[in-house]
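Side project, low priority. Logging it here so it doesn't get lost.
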Amino acid sequence: MTSDPAEEIGTAALLRGARRVYGDAIRAALDDAGYDDVPRNGIFVLSAISRSGTPLAGVVRDMGISKQSGSQLVDALVLRGYLERRDDPADRRRLTIVPSARGREVAAIVSKTVARMNGVVIRRIGKERMQQMREALLAIIEIGNSP
């Protein structure tokens, strides 16, 4: 038996557990602010588009969901007032998807909640170990993205 509890738990289980803790904190913050109708994957879409302006197709691809599922998610976010469809000024035959004021509010709550959770983790393990953890997670993502 090892003295490090993290070594007794599989890496995939640790990742899943960490995702759940962050997700629960985000969901609670959104519920408290009255945004209890955001679809689960909608949080990721709103955050990604608001934070970096990532094109929707890239966000859907990064989520690993089908185009059809992505389209249904966008439809739900539009109907609930979190996203808006607008004419593309460069090509009027195309539409762009942008966060509405309501969507930007959700993204801000998510960002604050993640920052708060990151602060809790940093107080527990230190800034250097937090950075190492982030680097390890990025390495895992890169493995998944390599051909």
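Brief comment: DSSP finds seven helices and two strands in the chain.
Revisit when time allows.
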